[in-house]
Amino acid sequence: MTALTPWTMAPVASGPWTVAPEPPDSPDARALWTAYYTEVSDRWFRLHRGSDTPPGELARGIAADDGPEQLVAPRGLLLVARLAGRASGMAGLALLEPGTAEVRRVFVHPSARGRRGGSALMAAVDAAAGALGAARLVLDTRHDLVESHRLYERHGFTRTEAYNEGPYAERWYTKRLASAAG
């Protein structure tokens, strides 16, 4: 019998959502990545500069982002959430060290928000992290992404000390997985 790994896990169903691993270079994953990057960049530019991200800056930022390359087996994966078959959300998971995985790029497309897609993604992240052998999850976010703070806290994450020095990391969270807490 083949062992279940996060890369071979069956889609996780949660209400109208299904979440499954997908290559980060698939057309749907790339479209979600671009939507994610555009939104967080525009929010930063509006907050700090009073305008959306200049188009050239946005294109350069997306091209320079090495995030997708870190979300491939054997040290990471990208989960894509589908609502009625349409790719509408994503979350990345990267193994930092044995037993610890980092949650990255949690995003639900604006057209699908308010339908529990974030919760579906977080449940799938927990399942994938457990299959990866992680006992603890960590993540970082920005102060202005208040919706993400509420999502993470609702799903058992607690504030912690900084574990990295990312240029946009302003708030850090950790979570012990239930299967590892016993």
TrEMBL record:
UniProt keyword annotations, A-Z: Acyltransferase, Transferase
GO molecular function: acyltransferase activity, transferring groups other than amino-acyl groups
Pfam families documented for this protein: Acetyltransf_1
PROSITE patterns membership: GNAT (PS51186)
Limits of the N-acetyltransferase domain: 27-178
Name of this chain's protein: GNAT family N-acetyltransferase
Organism name: Streptomyces odorifer
Organism lineage string: Bacteria, Bacillati, Actinomycetota, Actinomycetes, Kitasatosporales
